[in-house]
């Protein structure tokens, strides 16, 4: 049983779950601070549903990348860092088992969404449904956001890990919408978009070989690195806007310090770098997102209790 759980945790990449749970927590806390609405049981069910949806997204992406030949190309390409679980390319799990676990996670997410829609209102299904469609068609035909290289995948990530979970969690608690929820979704959503964008640097050569036209493939390393810097600035700039607009208290500006270690990594990169040189960029992107998210959560809790 212990071994099965370890395999599931690796196959679903459960370690990255905070990038979904943090925006959900922010949305619920927004309802607590702005409207005085907070139901712990609704929050827990939202966390379960959104968490299952995120793990489904991870696994369905692996499944379609395997079908599309992207994972095999990453495995065979020299110097490329593969970021999938390897369970399909290595034969650890059969396609049937992998697919069964994947769709079971979707089932948990769907049931959670239906229950929440009955309690809080039908728009919950809209939020969840849009997230589910984006998760599936990120690499699945005929849309395949992640393969088109025109910024579609970045927009999809901003929606999936920013706007939809924050606004959706806020709606679950309050049964209404507020422009502050949209503003609150931008810092964490843009930082998560930055994670996924920097993630492409690790295997862009294999993506190119497999026909996966990420922006890194289309633009090349130099232009993509410049865009990565601008995305970092935009994410933290949106945090300042949130404070100025009243969506966050002034002490949420402490989150700006989380940009420092990540910004320092850019100075160590050249115009062209081997894949392993991007590991610090990827790692610090994740740390910056999680640390900033925790600071924003703490700021809202303090504001709500004062």
TrEMBL record:
The keyword Lyase does not apply. It is a multi-pass membrane protein. Pathway: Quinol/quinone metabolism; menaquinone biosynthesis. The chain crosses the membrane at residues 40-57, 97-116, 122-139, 151-172, 184-203, 224-244. Its main location: membrane. It is found in: Membrane. The keyword Transmembrane helix applies. InterPro entries: UbiA_prenyltransferase (IPR000537), UbiA_sf (IPR044878), UBIAD1 (IPR026046). Keywords: Membrane, Menaquinone biosynthesis, Transferase, Transmembrane, Transmembrane helix. This is 1,4-dihydroxy-2-naphthoate octaprenyltransferase. The lineage of its organism: Bacteria, Bacillati, Bacillota, Bacilli, Bacillales.
């Amino acid at each position: 049983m212990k071994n099965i759980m370890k395999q599931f945790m690796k196959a679903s990449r459960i370690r990255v779950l905070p990038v979904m749970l943090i925006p959900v927590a922010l949305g619920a806390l927004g309802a607590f601070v702005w409207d005085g609405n907070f139901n712990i049981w609704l929050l827990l069910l939202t966390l379960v549903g959104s968490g299952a949806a995120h793990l489904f997204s991870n696994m369905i992406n692996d499944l379609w990348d395997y079908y599309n030949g992207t994972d095999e190309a990453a495995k065979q390409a020299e110097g490329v860092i593969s970021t999938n679980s390897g369970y399909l390319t290595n034969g650890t799990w059969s396609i049937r088992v992998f697919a069964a676990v994947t769709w079971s996670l979707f089932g948990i997410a769907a049931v959670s969404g239906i229950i929440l829609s009955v309690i809080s209102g039908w728009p919950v299904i809209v939020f969840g449904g849009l997230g589910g469609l984006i998760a599936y068609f990120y690499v699945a035909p005929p849309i395949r956001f992640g393969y088109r290289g025109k910024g579609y995948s970045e927009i999809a990530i901003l929606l999936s890990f920013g706007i939809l979970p924050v606004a959706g969690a806020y709606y679950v608690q309050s049964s209404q919408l507020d422009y502050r929820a949209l503003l609150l979704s931008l810092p964490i959503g843009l930082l998560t978009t930055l994670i996924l964008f920097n993630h492409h640097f690790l295997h862009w050569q294999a993506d190119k070989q497999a026909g996966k036209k990420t922006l890194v493939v289309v633009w090349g390393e130099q232009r993509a690195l410049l865009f990565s810097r601008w995305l970092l600035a935009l994410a933290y700039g949106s945090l300042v806007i949130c404070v100025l607009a009243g969506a966050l208290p002034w002490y949420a500006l402490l989150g700006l310090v989380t940009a420092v270690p990540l910004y320092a990594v850019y100075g160590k990169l050249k115009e062209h770098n081997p894949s392993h040189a991007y590991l610090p960029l990827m790692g610090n992107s994740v740390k910056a997102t999680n640390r900033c998210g925790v600071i924003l959560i703490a700021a809202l809790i303090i504001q709500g209790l004062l």
